[in-house]
Design goal:
Number of helices: 10
Order of helices and strands: EEHEHEHHHHHEEHHEEEHEE
Distance between the termini: 6 Å
CATH topology: Purple Acid Phosphatase, chain A, domain 2
Number of strands: 11
Shape: globular
Radius of gyration: 18 Å
Structural class: alpha/beta
Helix content: 25-40%
CATH superfamily: Metallo-dependent phosphatases
Strand order of the largest sheet: 1-11-10-2-3-4
């Protein structure tokens, strides 16, 4: 069932003609919620066909929730079957750093990496675990298909009057000059900005109780791993709705 966005401003931002975009917020290992969202997208497309439909996933697929490996399996299949676009989040970035450098382990565990490791069958009992054995075991069990999936993650993507990114952008900096650190981690400078960025930014990264729809941005991170609410925004023309 479609729910109209509460207090959605009359925005000029629009998708291209005959184009519908489904954007999904931070999943964080909740394969159960992702499965429900994918079923809703498929059902909506079956009931309301459109010439061009795009799925965009905004990053932070792993950590905190219990089923990170299953989430990556599902998203990788979606990329192959439906050309879904998957963006890079700060949690994916940190995990990839760990794959190359065991010294990153403690930083990753503090952000919920222990649950990702367990989903791949790597048992970590505490955040003081020795890094080298964990690093060695994780590299052994991490599937080649998942490596390829991570290598294909994009930092951002534009479609029509919308720009999709994990965390946000640094206001006043051209899109092609944004730093990866800002795209994956920025908060206050972006969230407090009321300026027109040239595109309406659709992002996650900062959990909110409900989708935050503003004239210059839409935040769809509703803390799925904790709240049980994974948000999918549907954009078509100037319409903003939620599945």
């Amino acid at each position: 069932m479609l729910r109209f966005a509460p207090k959605s401003p009359p925005a000029a931002a629009s998708t291209p003609p005959e184009t519908r975009i489904y954007a999904v917020g931070d999943i964080h290992g909740r394969a159960d919620l992702l499965r429900e969202i994918m079923a809703r997208i498929d059902d909506d497309l079956w009931r309301r066909p459109v010439e061009y439909a795009a799925e965009v996933y905004l990053g932070d697929y792993i950590d905190r929730g219990p089923d990170s490996k299953d989430v990556i399996d599902m998203l990788a299949a979606r990329v192959v079957r439906y050309n879904a676009v998957c963006l890079r989040g700060n949690h994916e970035d940190l995990m990839e750093h760990f794959l190359h450098d065991p010294r990153v382990l403690q930083s990753w565990l503090k952000l919920g990496g222990i649950y990702t490791l367990r989903s791949y069958g790597v048992v970590v009992r505490s955040d003081t675990e020795a890094a080298e054995p964990v690093h060695r075991q994780f590299r052994q069990v991490f599937p080649r298909a998942h490596q390829l999936f991570f290598e294909c993650l994009r930092p951002w993507i534009c479609c029509g009057d919308y720009l999709f990114v994990h965390a946000g952008i640094r206001p006043g900096v051209p899109f092609d000059r944004q730093s990866i650190a800002d795209l994956l981690w920025i908060r206050d400078e972006f969230l407090s900005s009321t300026r027109d960025h040239g595109k309406r930014i659709v992002h996650g990264h900062t959990p909110v109780p409900h989708p935050d729809v503003r004239a210059n941005r839409i935040n769809i991170d509703t803390g799925a791993w904790r709240t049980g609410m994974l948000t999918c925004v549907m954009l078509e023309g100037t319409s903003v709705q939620f599945l």
